[in-house]
Write a structure and sequence with these properties.
Belongs to the uracil-DNA glycosylase (UDG) superfamily. UNG family. This protein is of the alpha/beta class and about 220 residues long. The chain is about 35% helix and about 10% strand. It has nine helices and six strands, in the order ααβαβααββαβαβαα. The strands form two sheets. It has a four-stranded parallel sheet. The chain has a two-stranded antiparallel ribbon with strand order 1-4. Strand 5, helix 7 and strand 6 form a beta-alpha-beta unit. The longest helix has 16 residues. The mean pLDDT is about 95.
Length: about 220
């Protein structure tokens, strides 16, 4: 696994890349990509960092696992490549944006446009074997992405963390709530959303209100 990550992150993460757990993780990922179909494509594993540079981070969205269907995952949580049909969670995210902000439902599910505005779209696990959800969990990715969350919490201030669902909410313990704004809600998956735990959370307008109150540009969701 080649760690092709944007220069802005390297001073902060270089030490992480040299730790034994990360070397073991890299060997595991290389073997998986050789022997099986895995997602996202190898060149896109670190897309969350390559499209959102360290100095620009102002919102963090935490997902769990990449999509495991062909052509879906592009290295950004909840995002799919242009032209790919929108998965159910992404549909519910866009529906909430429609009602919260009055914005039209977008054609493309590619969230690079958010990343370029400073939204870090971070999955806890950055790779997955095709058609096997969770297949790369507990191999070291979570250690790495937890380190990223702690890094942002300690080195930056006034970042909005959007924690959707039980898994993401557990990451709150890594974040300094005195320096940052943590917004929790149910997950946008149909199971959670249809029980009333997602729609109406207004996270997109609340995030923008907070950013503007701290003198930062709001996100064009």
């Amino acid at each position: 696994m080649d760690v092709t990550i944007h220069e802005s992150w390297k001073p902060y993460l270089q030490e992480e890349f040299s730790k034994p757990y990360f070397n073991n993780l890299a060997e595991f990922v290389k073997a998986e990509y050789r022997q099986h179909q895995c997602f996202p494509p190898g060149s896109e594993i670190f897309n969350a960092f390559n499209h959102c540079h360290f100095n620009d981070v102002k919102v963090v969205i935490i997902g769990q696992d990449p999509y495991h269907g062909p052509g879906q995952a592009n290295g950004l949580c909840f995002s799919v490549a242009d032209g790919v049909s929108h998965p159910p969670s992404l549909i519910n995210i866009f529906k909430e944006i429609e009602t919260d902000l009055g914005a039209p439902y977008p054609t493309s599910g590619n969230l690079e446009r958010w990343a370029k505005q400073g939204v870090l779209l971070l999955n806890a696990t950055l790779t997955v074997r095709a058609h096997q959800a969770g297949s790369h969990q507990n191999k070291g990715w979570e250690t790495f992405t937890d380190a990223v969350i702690k890094l942002i919490s300690s080195e930056k201030e006034n970042v909005v963390f959007l924690l959707w669902g039980g898994f993401a909410k557990k990451k709150a313990k890594l974040i300094d709530a005195k320096k940052h704004n943590i917004l929790n809600s149910g997950h946008p998956s149909p199971l959670s959303a249809n029980r009333g735990y997602w729609f109406g959370n207004k996270h997109f307008s609340l995030a923008n209100q907070y950013l503007e109150s701290k003198g930062k540009a709001k996100v064009n969701w």
